[in-house]
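Risk mitigation, structural track. In case the binding assays with adenosine-5'-triphosphate fail to produce interpretable data, a predicted complex structure has been prepared as a fallback.
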Amino acid sequence: MTVVLATPSIEVKHLRKVYGEIVAVDDLTFAVPRGAVLGLLGGNGAGKTTTIAMLLGLLEPTAGDIHVLGIDMKKRRYAALPRMNFSSPYVDLPHRLTVRQNLLFYGRLYGVRNVGKRIDEIAEHMQVAPFLDRQAGKLSAGQKTRVALAKALINKPDVLLLDEPTASLDPDTADWVRTYLKDYQHETHATILLASHNMGEVERLCDDVVLLQAGRVFDRGSPRELIERFGREDMEEVFLDMARGRGRGLDALNRKETAS
Ligand SMILES: Nc1ncnc2c1ncn2[C@@H]1O[C@H](COP(=O)(O)OP(=O)(O)OP(=O)(O)O)[C@@H](O)[C@H]1O
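Fallback model:
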C-alpha cells in the first residue's frame, strides 16, 4: 500500500535572515501540517517577527526556502498570499480611515465576495460592530487588536499568521478570542502559526511548538512533550528554563554531539 503524505501547509527549510551583523534567524527548519497550530516561542529578539515577515514575503530571506500551501514563496508568492492573512500589534491600520473603511479596503484587496456582508459578519464575531464607523486611530489598544483580528480573518484564510494575537486584550476578551480561533481552525481546517509570550495561550491552542533562542531552534515538540522533557509543570516553566539557560534544548544537544 502506498501512503501519500499530504503536503504541509507551511514548510520552511534552512531559513536564515541576517541584518548587517545581526543573525536574526539561523537555519530554521519546520513544517506545519494542514489544520495544525504551531507556536513560535522565544524571548524578545529571538526572531519570531522576522520569521513571520519572511513567511508573508515582507522580508526577503538571506537563505533558505519557504513553501506555503505547496507554493514556492520565492517564485510564486502572489499565488499563495490571497489564501493567507496575518495580524500583528506592530502593524497599524491607517489611522484616519474608519474601521469599516479599513475592512473594506482589505476585503477588496483580498478579493472577498459580498464584502459588505462579510464585514458585518466578522465585525459581529470580533465584537467590533459598535465602533465600525470610528476612525481606527481613535480606538483603545484592545479594540485595535480586535480590529486587527477582524482584518486577519476577512478573507477566511487557509493560513493564518498571528503575532501576539491577544496582546492588550483583557483576560475575558483574550479567552473568547482563543475560543474563536480554536473553533475557526476546527471548522475551516485552517493552519495557524502563532507567536506568543502567553504560555497559557500556547498550551491551549498549539499542537506543536518551536522554541527559538537567538534565531535558532532550541527545542520543539507538543506542549505536553516539552513539559515532560523539561520535567516541568507547564509551558511557563519550560520557557523560563530556556530563557535562563537551564533547558536541554536540541540546539545545545546538537552542538555537544558535533563537538564530541
Ligand atoms: N530591521 C531590522 N534591522 C536590524 N535588526 C533587526 C531588524 N528587525 C529585527 N532586528 C533584530 O533581529 C532580531 C530578531 O528580531 P525579531 O523582531 O524577529 O524578534 P522577536 O522574536 O519578534 O522579538 P519580540 O518578542 O521582542 O517581538 C533582534 O536582534 C532584532 O533586534
